[in-house]
Amino acid sequence: MVEEKQWYQSKTVWGALLAVAASMVGALGISIDTTAQSDIADAMIQFVGAVGAMIAIYGRLSATEIIS
């Protein structure tokens, strides 16, 4: 059985959301150089991955049944 990923489990989706946010910031007249944009995007993707890992660990530790 193949487990289907949720939309928030994809780094591609998070990268696209960050790109939209960067575009909106630019539309508001706030300028961010491309190096900072890249650094912010990398940091956010790593943060989302860390949060996902913490949720997975919490879920496993709080489980009451064995996964078969």
Any overview of this molecule?
Helix 1 crosses helix 2. The protein has 2 helices and no strands. By secondary structure, it is an all-alpha fold.
SSE layout:
Elements: H1 11-27, H2 34-61
Helix pairs in contact: 1-2
- What's the mean pLDDT score? 78
Percent of residues in helices: 55-70%
Shape: elongated
The poorly predicted ranges are: none
How many distinct beta strands? 0
Class per helix and strand makeup: mainly alpha
Q: Keywords, please?
A:
mainly alpha, 2 helices
Give me a quick take on this structure.
The chain has 68 residues and is mostly helical. The protein is built from two helices and no strands. The protein is 66% helix and 0% strand.
